[in-house]
Design brief:
The protein has about 130 residues and is mainly alpha-helical. It is built from five helices and two strands. The two termini are about 10 Å apart.
């Protein structure tokens, strides 16, 4: 029905606006959007840890892309690799103080944006039940 197309179009528009907001905030702090997503994924599994393979799965990217992403985050000082004592082929990703600080700043902005768009999302999601 036409109402379904409108609902889906409006929903995708709100999501895209949020993603554009997110990309802009990350860029203002010198991060690529995917770098922000990686920091959030690493922090989001705490107290557990994330491997590069786990990160690739969470970001829906290829493992070799995740390696490059992690290498850039390590070079930027936002992430460290912690080698597994039992198996040195395995490494866990850990945020540095700098990574924690930049993620905290981005998180405040994102929570505020989610609060701002939440009423609109509620309306759209309720329309799915109709």
């Amino acid at each position: 029905a036409d109402a379904d197309y409108k609902l889906l179009a409006d929903f995708r528009h709100v999501l895209r606006q949020f993603l554009a907001f997110s990309e802009e905030r990350a860029s203002e702090l010198g991060l690529a959007s995917q770098q922000h997503q990686a920091l959030l994924a690493i922090k989001g599994v705490a107290p557990a840890t994330l491997s590069i393979g786990d990160l690739a799965q969470r970001l829906v990217i290829k493992p070799n892309s995740a390696v490059g992403l992690v290498n850039r985050l390590v070079l930027s000082g936002f992430v460290t690799r912690r080698m597994d004592d039992a198996d040195h082929r395995k490494a866990s990703l850990v945020l540095t103080r700098e990574g924690e600080a930049i993620l905290a700043e981005l998180t405040v902005a994102h929570r505020n944006e989610v609060r701002r768009i939440s009423p609109l999302l509620d309306v759209l999601l309720r329309q799915l039940d109709d």
